[in-house]
Amino acid sequence: xSTVRVVQWVFGxxxxxxxxxxxxxxxxxxxxxxxxxxxxxxxxxxxxKSDSDGDEMYYPSFQFRTLDGRDITAVGRLGASSxxxxxxxxxxxxxxxADPQGAQIRSxxxxxxxxxxxxxxxxxxxxxxxxxxxxxxxxxxxxxxxxRLR
Length: 150
Description:
The chain has helices spanning 3-35, 108-134, and strands at residues 37-50, 56-65, 71-75, 90-96, 99-105. The protein is α+β, with helices and mostly antiparallel strands. The chain has one domain.
């Protein structure tokens, strides 16, 4: 198998994997949004954690009150290199009755950035694989047939 064919298969498999992951991430988030209750909340702090490179990441910590009157404090699932929220910021919070600690801030970045980024990467890999499939390399030097020496 030629190197071009191997690279094409690698990009094709990466595309299938990434697009499948993006679909499942989207489906999970869509299902959460459909089941969740929306309530007002307030950012109380930014929790700092170190990533694998040792860089600080900021995760919003927020409070909200459930419909049955319980006060809940939760931390966002997505961190950023600089705080996206300031203490005191008003936010909309999505939570499920069965798991209020799993609440999320209703924002594009907190809910959808994962499926979007993975989907774009998968789309790019698919594009490269399809281009490689459609554009066939010319044989030989300068389009001429190479001859083998014996």
